[in-house]
Amino acid sequence: MTSRFTELAIDCTDPDALARFWCSVLDYEAREEDEDGVVTIGPPVTPGAGSQRGPVPPTLTFARVPEGRTVKNRLHIDLSPADREQDEEVGRLLALGARTAYVGQGDESWVVLVDPNTPDYQFC
């Protein structure tokens, strides 16, 4: 038996804003918000899907933390458009508030974007 990847926990300064952004990006919906402001989002619930074998789309949990980030992220999320070309999807994500970032990618075919809450100075 193996394990399944079911949740990614993300520390941030504005859980509500990031949850709204990622719901729009992934076509997810808010699942839960607790009294501490932790917001969990996931794909729309399909009746009976909990017992299915195979890939399970992970939920994302956003938790407010008081301290700012001081070093580079050690994790990033790779996305691939499901129903359109890459340039169309990049345009959609930019319209949702994402920003482009240069991290030394050169002439690669992939595009680096940061979410609306990531300060510019972290990519200098």
What does this entry look like structurally?
The chain has 124 residues and is of the alpha+beta class. The chain has two domains: 1-67, 2,3-Dihydroxybiphenyl 1,2-Dioxygenase, domain 1 (Roll), CATH 3.10.180; 78-124, no CATH class. 18% of the residues lie in helices and 20% in strands. It has two helices and six strands, in the order βαβββαββ. It has helices spanning 15-26, 86-95, and strands spanning 7-12, 29-33, 39-42, 59-64, 99-100, 113-114. The protein has a four-stranded mixed sheet with strand order 1-4-3-2, covered by helices on one side. Strands 5-6 form a two-stranded antiparallel ribbon. The radius of gyration is 16 Å and the shape is globular.
